[in-house]
Amino acid sequence: MSKIAMTTPLVEMDGDEMTRVLWQMIKDELIIPYVDLKTEYYDLGLVKRNETNDQVTVDSANATLKYKVAVKCATITPNAARMDEYNLKEMWKSPNGTIRAILDGTVFRAPIVVKGIEPYVKNWKKPITIARHAYGDLYKNVEMKIPAAGKAEIVYTDKDGKESRALIHEFDGPGIIQGQHNINASIESFARSCFNFGLDTKQDVWFASKDTISKKYDHTFKDIFQEIYDNEYKTRFEQAGIEYFYTLIDDAVARVVKSDGGFIWALKNYDGDVMSDMIATAFGSLAMMTSVLVSPEGVYEYEAAHGTVQRHYYKHLKGEETSTNSIATIFAWTGALNKRGELDGNNALSEFAKKLEKASLMTIESGKMTKDLALITTLKDVTVLNSQDFIKEIRKTLDTLL
Ligand code: NAD
């Protein structure tokens, strides 16, 4: 069998610990035997980031702007313990933060739905994708403790020095205040990313906030979404047979729980933070969540939503057997290969990616899985496989499909 050719490279961002081990196994077993893989390789492992003063992260993001599609392995975000463990020159910033800032994107997280791993909400049949606005609000707030009675105000001073003021509160005694901001341009690119992803995946887009209480702040989000939808997307959504609608966040929560899934739920920064963990847990497993960063210009970076699975890595280093779930990392690869195929008009590549996804799910549905899934599955008589054997089983299934 001849290998599938590629015309344009993918940007490949290698990473750390157990996911770095899985990365190589996935390439060796599931991709290179079938695809004449072309990638521009960047090693985002912590050793290399430290060696290059994190320049490699910036370079990989710039390459992604150029080639439009990247696949990323999970990476360590350094903390105090990592400073010693890796003898770091500096506590380098989160690579995901750096990449997101360069691509100006929105992160979409979606669970991989498979028979045998059942959501806690029985009527959820299709994935629910969370789109979280990743700028501002609580995450860039300014807070103050008010020690005693006094007046707190918000003040805006324009370029000519003219002030506008609003009273926050007349305090009788101690209290607290908080200032938040967002930027119209950031909300606009968030809205466009959500609408583009809706068109891309043929799913409805819901946006929810608390505009009834926050009549200026949240209402601005609502207005910007509506204006961009009406002016730029309405016709295309109608042609694609999908919908956009806004609803109050309380109403959205009720609708989400009663739905059967299959839509994109766009949320402000804090709401998205909380709801994406709720959705991941309710669908069954963090190891089954995918994540894709989409820029308003149509640049895509695919990854697993989980981290580097540090505990398994230390076992692996000691020569002990691991049973680490590679599904979300495989789906990062298939997401990227499928998108590369779409953008290049390379149907064979997209078809291959879809078959690899199918083979992964069929393997689990046949009762062969890693330990994390065996602990929560509703299937009977399952076989628990180690990291390597699970990938080899998927390869066997894939061969039956090709
Ligand atoms: P983690 O996602 O690696 O692990 C969290 C828990 O889920 C652990 O109990 C782990 O055993 C389990 N788990 C996660 N993925 C699994 C898989 N594929 N198979 C089986 N079990 C799995 O998160 P953590 O332990 O908080 O962080 C470890 C490292 O990962 C940290 O250095 C952190 O900075 C990094 N991290 C990176 C990313 C990213 O690159 N996107 C995201 C989160 C954390």
TrEMBL record:
**UniProt-annotated site: Critical for catalysis, residues:** 139, 210
Q: Would the keyword Ribonucleoprotein turn up in this protein's UniProt record?
A: no
| Top-tier EC class | oxidoreductase
Q: How is the cofactor bound?
A: Binds 1 Mg(2+) or Mn(2+) ion per subunit.
Q: Does the keyword Flavoprotein apply?
A: no
Query: EC number(s) on record?
Result: 1.1.1.42
What's any GO biological process attached to this entry? tricarboxylic acid cycle
Name the keywords, alphabetized.
Magnesium, Manganese, Metal-binding, NADP, Oxidoreductase, Tricarboxylic acid cycle
Q: Which SUPFAM superfamilies match?
A: Isocitrate/Isopropylmalate dehydrogenase-like
GO MF terms held by the record: isocitrate dehydrogenase (NADP+) activity; magnesium ion binding; NAD binding
Residues binding Mn(2+), per UniProt: 250, 273
In Swiss-Prot or TrEMBL terms, this protein is called Isocitrate dehydrogenase [NADP]
Q: Which family does it belong to?
A: Belongs to the isocitrate and isopropylmalate dehydrogenases family.
Residues bound to NADP(+)? 75-77, 82, 258, 307-312, 325
List the Gene3D superfamilies hit by this protein, alphabetically.
Isopropylmalate Dehydrogenase
Identify which cofactors the protein needs according to its UniProt entry: Mn(2+); Mg(2+)
Query: Which reaction equations make up its catalytic activity?
Result: D-threo-isocitrate + NADP(+) = 2-oxoglutarate + CO2 + NADPH
Entry binding sites for D-threo-isocitrate: 77, 94-100, 109, 132
Task: List, for all copies, the residue spans of the domain called Isopropylmalate dehydrogenase-like.
Answer: 9-394
